[in-house]
Amino acid sequence: MSASNPSSARSRGRAVTYTAGSIALLIVGAVLDICAVANVPGAATYPTVDGAAGGTLRITPVGVGIALFAIAAWFTVLWRRRHPLVVVIAGGVLAVVGTSYLLLLIGAVALIRQKPTKVVPIGAVVGGSVLLFALREALTPWGGALPWFLTTSIGAVDSVEWNVAVIVCALVSLGIAAGSVALTRTRDRAERSEQRAAVQTQRADVLAEQTVRQAERERIARDMHDALAHRLSVVSLHAGALEAAADAGVTGQMARTVREQTHAALQDMRGLIGELRSGSDAESSAPATMRAVGALVAGLRGAGHAITSLILIESPERAGALFDGAVFRIVQESLTNAVKHAPRAPIDLIVQVAPESGARIRVVNPVGAGVPAGAPGSIPGGGNGVLGIRERATALGGQAWIGAYEGSFIVDVTLPWQERG
Question: How far apart are CA 66 and CA 60, in angstroms?
Fold first, then answer.
């Protein structure tokens, strides 16, 4: 079974409420206007004895016709949302005939809701009509129903009290209608605000999802760059050395290094592609963990690179996954950068990691000891490695200083400690 949509449930509830309210208005309004037929001169007779009521109120044939018309007119209230102008016209006819102006006010409220920019002219016309209706009841023979039903005396209709009551009743009715319009407009504005808020929330969710996806793509791009650039840089260097040493008969060790690094690069590629396909962290032959820093350095030393290292790592099992991987990737990319641009120069590496102080990574190599561009073993740089180091440090709230200083190229990164969750 599927869960019901809350918005659909609200819509059904509003439809039921609207229908029930319309039926109630129809019944109450029709009854009131049938009683108000006595307002119209010639529609009813008031049998009196010495000015007092002496029998029942009798409706004339004219009054019966007016009552039937009033009932028909009140049926228009069922369509006040779709066709409010029809309700206004029907209510206006009843007001002209002299029964009441109640249907006119209901139609005016519905018409203003449909045409909110016309509130002033609609209000002026309807308000004027209601006041004219009241003045007619106060100054002419119209308006005998209310005094008859409340006092059973037709003579009371000419009293000052009833004339004032008619005017007050008209003003109160206009005030209630104006309040209903204000309440309706406020509710409509609130609904529109909720709809706009829902649209903005949906847009924000879409943007957040896109941002998350973009961040994930950037993370995978950094991992691919850091993992493969290191392997392929070593392969490229030794391929150039193989070319230069082909005639010297000393290519065996270099060929083995090329083969090993190529195989490792393929393993890294398989692991990253598996991660892209599965959406989870796939295992690779060179896991992105600070525990592998020693093996990384040993591999470069075995390939003939002079690296002096100091590696002090405390409690690696307590480190968070992002922090753990970032330490390894920053060391890997820093060494790759040094090997790429200064393959014959010694490299100094310091890695210090502790829960109390976080991580400090420092890689130093001389500037100017690189392979000339275009020479065998030269490797073009795209600048993505340095950018990736900065991005990783920033993402974890750390700092990265990268650049040349006093004849050396220095990568100096600090990262705050992150505990495993």
Answer: 10
The residues, any chain, with a CB within 8 Å of residue 26's CB and separated by 6 or more, are 74, 75, 77, 78
Q: Which amino acid is at 136?
A: R
Q: What is the pLDDT of residue 284?
A: 44
In the chain, the amino acid numbered 69 is F
Is residue 91 within 8 Å of 69, Cβ to Cβ? no
Distance CA 51, CA 49 (A): 5
pLDDT for 413? 96
- The phi, psi pair for 367, rounded to 5°, reads -90, 140
Q: Of 391, 386, 337, 388, which is closest to residue 364 (Cα–Cα)? A: 337
Quickly tell me which residue has 């129903």 as its tokens.
145
**3-class SS of residue 319:** strand
Q: Out of 43-57, 91-105, 153-167, 185-199, which region has the weakest mean confidence (pLDDT)?
A: 43-57
Report the alpha-carbon angle 122-126-132, nearest 5: 150
* CA 207 distance to own-chain centroid: 9
Identity of residue 1: M
* Domain ranges within the chain, ordered by starting residue: 6-158, 205-415
In this prediction, residue 16 has a pLDDT band, given cuts at 50, 70 and 90, of confident
Looking up tokens 């495993």 gives 420
Closest CA to 329 of 284, 381, 266: 284
102 near 91, Cβ under 8 Å?
yes
CA 314 – CA 323 distance, rounded (Å) = 13
Token output for 138: 């106060």
Locate tokens 């396909």: which residue? 277
> Which position has the token pair 């920053």?
330
Question: Between the ranges 146-150, 171-175, 265-269, 356-360, where is the mean pLDDT highest?
Answer: 356-360
Report whether 376 contacts 354 (CB < 8 A): no
Q: What pLDDT shows up at residue 343?
A: 76
Tokens of 152: 């059973």
**Which tokens in the block code for residue 260?**
């090993």
pLDDT > 70: percent of the chain: 71
Contact 188, 81 (CB under 8 A): no
Give, in words, the CATH class of 205-415.
alpha beta
Sort 145 into a burial class: Cβ within 10 Å, 0-12 / 13-18 / 19+: buried
* Sequential DSSP letters for 335-374: HHHHHHH-TTS-EEEEEEEETTTEEEEEEEEETT-SPPTT
User: 196-251: per-residue pLDDT in tens?
Assistant: 888 888 888 878 877 777 777 666 666 666 666 566 666 666 666 665 565 555 56
